[in-house]
Amino acid sequence: MAAMMKAFARQGKTNRPPLAVDVGCLVEQPRRHVWLQHRDGVIVHGPTGAGKTWRVAWQRVIDAPGFVLATTTKADLVAATLTERAARGRVAVFDPERLTGWPAGIAWSILAGCTDPDTAIRRADALARAMPLEGTRNGAYFEQKAATMLRCCLHAAALRELSIREVRVWVSARTNHTPVDILADTLPDWASELDQILSSASESSDDVLAAASRLLEPLASPTLLAAVDIPVEQSFDVAEFVLSGVNTLYLVSKGTSRSMAPFVAALATEVHHVADRASQRAPSKRLDPPVRLVLDEMNNVAPIPDLPQIMTDSGGKGIMVWAFAHNQDQNELRWGAEGGRVLAQSAPAMLVLPGLRGVEELSALSRLIGERRRWEASLHEGSRTYSLHDDTVLRADEIRELASDHALLIYRNAPAMLLSLPSVWEYAPWRHTVTASTRVFDDIVAGRRPPPRPEHSDPQRRREGGPGDE
């Protein structure tokens, strides 16, 4: 473990971004490090308490060479990484539910940019697809229709410079045809689609309205509404923040059914969209330094649409995704059986932490790792004979019972590897960094010191935008 700590410390002493990510050391050869490329997407499976935060997520936020988007359901990851990230760039916290107590949270208008129909489509799609299907019959149909209704309302509100409050009123009242009237002049086909939903007397239409209303239900809380109900010109500038330095954006939500998770997911989707577009304008068609998305509780807090596909093609654009989930069953519940399998199988790397309990997943992992072939000697009537035997490399119970500081890495076409993943609490410099950062965070929350400002210090540069905005 000491060798890994020294390598991590060397990374912090140079201004040149590391060319790879030090994931851990081989259990049987602790001096040998395992490195992943920045283009490798990684899915991490581990139940609550398995060490996702302190053995993996903290390290990936700290060692990121460029912009980081970090999602979480509680304050600990924000508090533990705050000072390290603030020393390298700006930090911003989107915490609409005020779970962290952060006093200077950003506000982001979901309507910003929705005068562009394509932006309205993207936002509505992210909102609608953030709602778990939960086994609903014809769930995909209702998701699609809810997205149609929301994109029409978002675009109509943006055109008239209205607020998300009006959108919520429109969605909850079948008899309100204001958005239809607004769209009739500019996008008559959209107006027709929306009118069909509102005018239909079928039960399916009622279900679509109920699904759209459910997405906006959290906005009944004035506290939650304030995080997204802001004039467009005062809204958090996503593109400027993502593309203007080694900045960090924390997105925080409980991820429950009545939380602001759909809006958090929409903001995460916008971050990926900005990075994706910027990569294609870069000379090498990839971002340098790379952008990193550390998606803790991805299925509940940041289910970015098409995440299974994003895991496969974003790496070549300089966008590295670390997606954290409890297990494969949770993936399939969130993305459907096929989407969950694609997500697990499309990631170039999978990191399995101790304590998984799904028999099917454990058995599948054991079969995937395969068998090792060995010669076995036997004596029969005084003569020795040899025969080949196939032994399972890791049984399902051995994967479940991994030591608390171990993890199983399955990477591309390489043999599976057992890694040692030290916790931040096991190494004094890391422990000191976390406790000092948490102390600063607590002082900021208590009002004993001012928070770092998410805005750029130079107003002129903020107006002009950051690199890649042109």
Automatic annotation (TrEMBL):
Subcellular localization: Cell membrane
TraD/TraG TraM recognition site domain span: 290-402
GO-annotated cellular components: plasma membrane
Record InterPro entries: P-loop_NTPase (IPR027417), T4SS-coupling_protein (IPR051539), TraG-D_C (IPR032689)
Recorded coiled-coil stretches: none
Tree of life domain: Bacteria
UniProt-annotated stretches for the region Disordered: 445-470
Keywords from the named record: Cell membrane, Membrane, Transmembrane, Transmembrane helix
Keyword presence, S-adenosyl-L-methionine: no
Membrane topology: Multi-pass membrane protein
UniProt key word Signal: no
Name under which the protein is recorded: TraM recognition domain-containing protein
Organism expressing this protein natively: Nocardia terrae
